[in-house]
Every structure is written in C-alpha cells, then in structure tokens.
Design brief:
By secondary structure, the chain is an alpha+beta fold. It is built from eleven helices and twelve strands. It has two domains: 161 residues, no CATH class; 165 residues, Serine Threonine Protein Phosphatase 5, Tetratricopeptide repeat (Alpha Horseshoe), CATH 1.25.40.10. The chain has a six-stranded antiparallel beta sheet, with no helix packed on it. A four-stranded antiparallel beta sheet has the order 7-6-12-11, with no helix packed on it. It is elongated and about 85 Å long.
Amino acid sequence: MLAVASLALHAQGVITTPRIPSPASSVSQTIGISTVTVKYSRPSVKGREIWGALVPYGWNADKTFGAGNEAPWRAGANENTTIELSHPAKVEGHMVPAGTYGLFFVINKDNTGEVVLSKQYKSWGSFWYDAKYDEMRAPIQLRTIPQTELLTYEFISVTKNSAELVLNWEKKQFPVKIEFDVDKIVMDNAAEELNNTVGFTWQGYSSAANYALQNKVNLEQAFKWINQSIAQNKNFTNLRIKSGIQKQMNNTAEAEATMQEAMTYATENELNTYGYQLLQQNDYDKAIEILTLNTKKYPKSANTFDSLGEAYFMKGDKKNAAANFKKSLTMNPTDGTKANSEKYLKQMGIM
C-alpha cells in the first residue's frame, strides 16, 4: 500500500515538461472588432503516409476507445482542436453563436471534405465524438499546397468582414470561410460602451456617430449620438460629423449651415487637415476655399500659405501656387515648411 500511495502522490506532483512530439500552439485573428482563436497541437509528417492512412478517409469508426462512434478527424493531435468566436459568426454559410467549439475535419479520396464544429469541445481527440453535439457541418473543397511538415493553422484573405481559416499539412489545405456582421457588432458594442464611462465624453458619442457616417449605417442613431456629443462640447469635429450625417440624410441646406458653423470653431490645424482631406478626394476648389479661410484666420502662419500653395499646385494653378509658396518663405517658416515650399518652387523651375 505504501508504494501505491507514493506513486499516486508523485503523479499529482509532476513537473511541467515540453510536449513532444506534437507541441501545443494557437493562432488568433481580429476581424473588425471580433476575434477568432484556434488552439491545437502540431504533429509532423515525419515521412509517414498521412491521408487515407494516419488520417483515414471519410468518417473513421474508432471502436478501440470512447464511444466507438464514427468520427471526423480531430484536426490536430492530443486534445480537441478548438475554435473560439468572440461574436456570432457565419462559418461556411452557417450562423454560429459566439463561444468555443471543437474543430474537426473530414477528408475524402476525391479531395472534398467537411468541416464540423462541435459544442463538445473538452474531449480528447475524436474518441468521444457524438454527432448530437454538432453545432454545424459544411462541405469544403480541399486545395493542393507545397509540402508542409508541421501541421499549421493560419488566416488568409483577411477583409473588413471576413477571413479564411486554413489548416495546412503535408500537401493539403483545408479552408474555412468565417464572416462577421462587423457594422452591426461595432454599433451594438458602441451602444454598450456609451452606457459606461465612454458616455461621459463628447469624444465617445462623436466617434460612434462618425463610424456610422463613414460606413453609412443607422444614420438615425448616429444623428442622436452626434447631438449628444455637441450638447457636451460643441466643436469643429462633432459639428463637421453632424454636417456629414445631414448630407447623407439628404438634408443639404442644414448640412451646409452646420458646416459653416463648424468653421467658426476650427483651429488652424483642423482647417489644414480638412483641406488636405478634400485634396485627397480631388475636391480642389473646396480645398482651396477652406485653406484660403485658414490664411485669413491665421495670417501670421507660414504653414497656412504653404498648404494653400500645395492646393493650387495640385489643381494646376502654378501662378497662385508660386505666390503662396513665396509668401510662406517670407514669414520665418519652420524648417519643414521651408523645405516643402522650396521643393515645389524648384519643381516649377522658380528656384
């Protein structure tokens, strides 16, 4: 009895050692403000025949351990490979609630396969797999890739709303498309955050309204948010956003009036930034109008004339461009502003 007790105590107190030969790993990807995380173990090929041998084709019936049910491949080694979704997502066209799932694959001889997500994610491999816990199954088309010795998960083709999770091993790739309704998730999250400390700031309501404006979603809610921001602290930033929302809602006259009011609150840097944004949109006349206003509001700033010179230059009006660059150089400009004005004058063959 003493020997048995000693062994039991030793088993409970063993040290942590490296897992060989299939080390644990994880990979994560942010899509919008959502995250997808895969945790898995990484076996190596080691010259073995993988498909149809080490990993049987179809639904493998392993009756040696566990439930003895037909089961998919655990898509890794050791414990279940798991996938965690921070928000509801569409996985290969199937809506899947947020949460953690066991991730399984099936491979067939014709290079077709299936992806399976199981709510029973704490099991060891596929031995206790039970189809009644499936959250979803979907067919996939496998791809041929260069030799990959160590089983690897990665995310490819990442966009604003989606990404492909791929498993690469030997010469096969198993792709799974994952999509999030990013705009809805961001807007719902914004509403929650604005009920917390973020809601005590004008910037919180302003940033939420601006996201809705830039992505053209739920403008009615955005209009309420921007008015709350303005009530807390009226400034160029939130007035400009309000003007943009009004314009998107086809309230053109109100949008123009709001923008005119915004100009009265604008700092030199804000007008300058706005002017350059208009230039990036190729709206040269409007940019020149804003940057001219900046020279009038801040007539002692060399940078305002340098920026106006750039606007005229981009429009192709070299005469007015040169006049403003020269004006800037007479006003003791900073080194950066001086270098910029001189650069453009040289391009025009004036210096």
